[in-house]
Design brief:
It comes from Paenibacillus mesotrionivorans. The chain is mostly helical. Helix content is 75%, strand content 0%. The chain contains 14 helices and no strands. The two termini are 25 Å apart.
């Protein structure tokens, strides 16, 4: 009886493995091969010859300053998203209209990023609704576009759904009896949140921070449209090297460092699931 069962198990396993083929092809064509090409071009100069100068240039003061700016702005964007997303996700879990609120949060992600950036050009412009309101109140028009504030505001608007959703999922999965038990034992609301709710929802917080911080490191289109390139990041430098100076080697070198940093962040913030059982 065991031989037929083993053959059946192997047949089913082989059938399941066929479903992995499209995924493996996708990973090969759009992840592995591009990374290999980036690594290859990082050792090439403008003329196409082999060089190690790109990696030496990457540690000069200009690029180090760009890296510091990139991490600083990515940190600010992630922090602002987290401070706004956690209470929002918590209120959604307590609402009677969860599905409607989630739909309203997800809808902006269906809109093209370029359209959203251009929309804010009109909103923050000198003749936009915000400056019109400021003039009506007597405060006078302000220069909102091409500032750090406009960059961070637009970036937070774009990325905040990716912070809300994982935190919402963690809060939804939280067993309410745990918070009830903490309250029954005399814990205040703040103590219950700090000692029970927040630690148990940290996987969602980590996932949200990962989903925001990593793409925020390589922003370039918003820096060009909303800040007029006044905010310079590594993403902006990569775009300039590939599209303007045609120095693909230097652009690839910066991209290699970004890939390494992103992988390191994923490992540091990733949740290791330890499953035990008989």
């Amino acid at each position: 009886m065991r031989a037929p069962m083993s053959a059946e198990v192997r047949r089913r396993a082989g059938g399941r493995n066929l479903y992995l083929v499209p995924y493996l092809l996708w990973m090969l064509l759009f992840v592995i091969i591009p990374i290999v090409l980036i690594g290859y071009y990082s050792f090439r100069n403008v003329e196409g010859g082999f060089t190690l100068a790109n990696y030496g240039k990457a540690f000069t003061s200009v690029y180090v300053k760009m890296a510091v700016n990139s991490f600083f702005y990515a940190f600010l964007i992630t922090l602002c998203c987290l401070l706004a997303a956690y209470p929002t996700a918590y209120l959604i879990t307590k609402s009677k209209h969860k599905q409607l609120l989630l739909l309203l949060i997800i809808l902006p992600t269906w809109i093209n990023l370029l359209l959203k950036a251009y929309a804010f050009l009109g909103i923050f412009g000198s003749a936009g609704p915000i400056n019109t309101f400021l003039e009506w109140t007597g405060l006078g028009a302000r220069q909102i576009l091409f500032t750090d504030f406009s960059f961070i505001f637009v970036a937070v608007y774009i990325f905040i759904p990716f912070m809300i959703l994982p935190i919402y999922n963690s809060l939804e999965e939280l067993n309410p009896t745990l918070t009830d038990a903490a309250r029954d034992l005399g814990a205040s609301r703040w103590t219950t949140f700090r000692r029970v709710v927040l630690p148990l929802t940290m996987p969602g917080v980590k996932s949200g921070c990962q989903a925001v911080f990593i793409p925020a490191l390589s922003l370039f289109m918003i820096t060009r449209l909303v800040t007029g390139n006044r905010v310079i990041t590594l993403g902006t430098a990569i775009e300039q090297h590939f599209l303007v100076t045609q120095d693909w080697g230097m652009g690839s070198t910066i991209a290699v460092f970004l890939v390494i940093v992103m992988v390191a962040i994923m490992f540091m913030t990733g949740e290791r699931n330890r499953r035990t059982g008989a």
